[in-house]
Design a protein that fits this description.
Low-confidence stretches: none
Shape: flat
Distance between the termini: 25 Å
Number of helices: 2
Order of helices and strands: HH
Number of strands: 0
Radius of gyration: 14 Å
Length: 64
Amino acid sequence: MNIVLTTPDDWSPELALTLRALLQQAVDRGCPIVVSVRADAPADEISSLQARIRTLVKESGLAA
């Protein structure tokens, strides 16, 4: 399977390669959970999203 990602123009090549490496690790190691977050999202919104994802993973039995 090939996944094509488009990164913002203002991202450095290093940041784009880092994202690719992190996503590759996630795919290689199991069931990846990918979430898009707006660049202007406040920290409390991101924390809330992380908490909801942790709860979903725990309740679904996906947690190791």
